């Protein structure tokens, strides 16, 4: 009984995922005015030769710092949970 329930739930989840994926639509990204702005001004404003690096570290620096803090906290939590304890 339990195995049949697991199989049914798995089939339903795969079906729902299939419906969601087939319903996704991806439009033509085209060219946004911000694209031109970053390409033309990133080297002048940030001094970086790479536009991606300029966007990540200069324009979105606090966001990148926040993402790094979340990753560090997650790694710290996992290491604390999985560490071996010494028996005193």
From TrEMBL:
Q: Which InterPro entries match?
A: CPA3_Na-H_Antiporter_A, MrpA_C/MbhE
Q: Which domain of life is it from?
A: Archaea
Domain MrpA C-terminal/MbhE residues, every copy: 1-86
The membrane spanning regions, by residue number, are: 7-27, 65-82
Q: What keyword terms does UniProt attach to this protein?
A: Membrane, Transmembrane, Transmembrane helix
Annotated Pfam families: MbhE (PF20501)
Q: What is this protein called?
A: MrpA C-terminal/MbhE domain-containing protein
